[in-house]
C-alpha cells in the first residue's frame, strides 16, 4: 500500500495547474444517461473516483472512452441494457447515487444500492427520495437497494428541500429535465457544481433557470441531445493548493483559479495573513510577513466556507498565532484528522461539532494515517511545515480527489514523494 513521505522545507515558488472539478465531473458523467446521443466532457480530472464512475456507467450499458490521457471523457448511452447499480461499485463512492434520477427519467425504473464513500458521517438519501417522489416516482428500500419506478413517467412539481443538499439538488435537477411540465426546486444548493451541471444540461437542450440561486425552475422537454462541455475548475483542489505557501512561505500561482469559486475561503486567508491576488492566468497566493494568525471558521453551504476545506484549514491553524475555533455544520464525524495532527504536536480539543485549536510554533514529523480524502491532504500540508519527516499512510483516499499531487507540489519546491510498502 502506498504512503506519501513529506519533509519540512522552506519557501515555495512556481505555478500549479488546477484540474477540473471532481465533484462536478462525477455529476456530469451520469447526465449521459439522459440522452441517446454522445456527451463529451473536457478538462476532466484524472482520479480514481472518475474510474469508479466509468465502471458504474459501463455496468449499465453505457460506452465510456477516456481520451487525451484522461482529460476527455467521451460517453454514449444509446444502448443501456441494465438498470441495477450494484453495491460492489456504488459502495466505493457516494456520488454513484447520481445515476438514480437520470435512469428514472430515461428508463422509468432503477435499482440503486445505497452509496458509500469517505467515513465522515451519514449520507442519507431522504431528500433525493423526497424530490423524486414529488415528481411521481415510487421508491422503496429493500435489502440495501432503492427500488424506484415511474410507471406513468415523471411529472413536474414544486418542492422545498429541508436542507440545501448538493446531491439531492443534482439528482432532482437531472430527473426534472425529462419530466412533463414545470419543476420548481426551492432551497436548492447553490454550489458552482450545480451551475456547471445546469450549463451542461442546457447545452443538451434542457430548459433551466435560476441555477446558482436558491430557486431553480426546470421546464421539462421530450428529449435531450448530445453535447460537449468543459468541466469547471476544482475549487477544492484550488483552495487546498492556495494553502501551500501559507504553510511554507513563498509565492505560488494557481493556473485556472477563479476568485468567485473561493471567495469566502480567500477572505479567511486574508484574515490569517495570506495575500490572494487575481492574475491573467489564475490566482497568486503568498504569505504576508510573520506568522499566520488564528481565524475562526464555520462551515456552511456555498457561498459559505466549504466543509471540504475545513481539514486543510485546521492544519494551518495548528501553527497559527493564537487560538481558533472551527465549527463543522455540514457533516458529523469530520474531525478524524485531529488525532493525527495531535501526533505531530498540534494542540486541538474536539467537542462534538466544534474543534478548538491552540496554535503552536512548530509541528514535528510523525507517522500518521489518512482517514478520509480531505484529511489525507491536510496531513501532507502539515508535514510540509513540520520539522523532520512525515509519513502519511492509507493515501488511497488521496487518489480519489487529488490529481498527481506529488508532481504538482514537487513542481513548486515541496519535498514530497510516494513510496510503496514502506
TrEMBL record:
Q: Where is the active site?
A: 118 (proton donor)
- According to its UniProt record, where is this protein located? Cytoplasm
**Which residues are modified to 2-(S-cysteinyl)pyruvic acid O-phosphothioketal?**
118
Question: What SUPFAM superfamilies has UniProt attached to this entry?
Answer: EPT/RTPC-like (SSF55205)
What EC numbers are recorded for this enzyme? 2.5.1.7
Q: Which CDD domains match?
A: UdpNAET (cd01555)
For the biological process aspect of GO, one term held by this record is:
cell division
Instruction: List the Gene3D superfamilies.
Output: Enolpyruvate transferase domain
Involved pathway(s): Cell wall biogenesis; peptidoglycan biosynthesis
Tell me, in one coarse class, where this protein mainly resides.
cytoplasm
Residues that hold phosphoenolpyruvate according to the record: 22-23
Matching HAMAP family, A to Z? MurA
Protein family (similarity comment)? Belongs to the EPSP synthase family. MurA subfamily.
Q: What is this protein called?
A: UDP-N-acetylglucosamine 1-carboxyvinyltransferase
Amino acid at each position: 500500500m502506498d504512503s506519501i513521505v513529506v519533509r519540512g522545507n522552506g519557501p515555495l515558488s512556481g505555478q500549479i495547474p488546477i484540474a477540473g472539478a471532481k465533484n462536478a465531473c462525477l455529476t456530469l458523467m451520469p447526465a449521459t444517461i439522459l440522452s441517446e446521443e454522445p456527451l463529451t466532457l473536457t478538462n476532466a480530472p484524472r482520479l480514481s473516483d472518475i474510474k469508479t464512475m466509468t465502471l458504474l456507467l459501463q455496468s449499465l450499458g453505457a460506452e465510456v472512452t477516456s481520451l487525451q490521457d484522461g482529460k476527455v471523457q467521451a460517453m454514449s448511452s444509446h444502448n443501456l441494457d441494465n438498470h441495477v447499480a450494484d453495491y460492489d461499485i456504488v459502495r466505493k463512492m457516494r456520488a454513484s447515487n447520481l445515476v438514480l434520477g437520470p435512469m428514472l427519467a430515461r428508463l422509468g425504473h432503477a435499482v440503486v444500492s445505497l452509496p458509500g464513500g469517505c467515513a465522515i458521517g451519514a449520507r442519507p438519501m431522504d431528500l433525493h427520495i423526497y424530490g423524486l417522489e414529488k415528481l411521481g416516482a415510487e421508491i422503496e428500500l429493500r435489502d440495501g437497494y432503492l427500488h424506484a419506478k415511474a410507471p406513468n413517467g415523471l411529472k413536474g412539481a414544486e418542492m422545498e428541500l429541508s436542507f440545501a443538499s448538493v446531491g439531492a439538488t443534482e439528482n432532482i435537477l437531472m430527473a426534472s429535465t425529462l419530466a412533463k411540465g414545470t419543476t420548481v426546486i426551492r432551497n436548492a444548493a447553490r454550489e458552482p457544481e450545480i451551475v456547471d451541471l445546469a450549463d451542461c444540461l442546457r447545452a443538451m437542450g434542457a430548459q433551466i433557470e435560476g441555477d446558482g440561486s436558491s430557486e431553480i425552475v426546470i421546464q421539462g422537454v421530450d428529449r435531450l441531445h448530445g453535447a460537449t462541455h468543459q468541466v469547471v475548475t476544482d475549487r477544492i483542489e484550488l483552495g487546498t493548493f492556495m494553502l501551500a505557501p501559507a504553510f511554507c512561505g513563498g509565492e505560488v500561482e494557481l493556473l485556472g483559479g477563479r476568485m468567485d469559486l473561493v471567495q469566502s475561503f480567500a477572505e479567511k486567508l486574508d484574515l490569517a495573513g495570506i495575500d490572494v491576488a487575481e492574475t491573467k492566468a489564475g490566482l497568486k497566493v503568498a504569505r504576508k510577513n510573520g506568522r499566520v494568525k488564528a481565524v475562526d471558521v464555520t462551515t456552511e453551504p456555498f457561498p459559505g466556507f466549504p466543509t471540504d476545506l475545513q481539514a486543510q484549514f485546521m492544519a494551518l491553524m495548528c501553527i497559527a498565532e493564537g487560538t481558533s475555533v472551527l465549527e463543522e455544520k455540514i457533516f458529523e464525524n469530520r474531525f478524524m484528522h485531529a488525532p493525527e495532527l495531535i501526533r505531530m504536536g498540534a494542540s486541538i480539543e474536539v467537542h462534538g461539532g466544534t474543534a478548538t485549536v491552540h496554535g503552536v510554533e512548530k509541528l514535528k514529523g510523525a507517522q500518521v494515517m489518512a482517514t478520509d480524502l480531505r484529511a489525507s491532504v491536510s496531513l501532507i500540508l502539515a508535514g510540509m511545515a513540520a520539522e523532520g519527516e512525515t509519513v502519511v499512510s492509507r493515501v488511497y483516499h488521496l487518489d480519489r480527489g487529488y490529481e498527481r499531487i506529488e508532481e504538482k507540489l514537487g513542481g513548486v519546491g515541496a519535498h514530497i514523494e510516494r513510496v510503496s510498502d514502506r
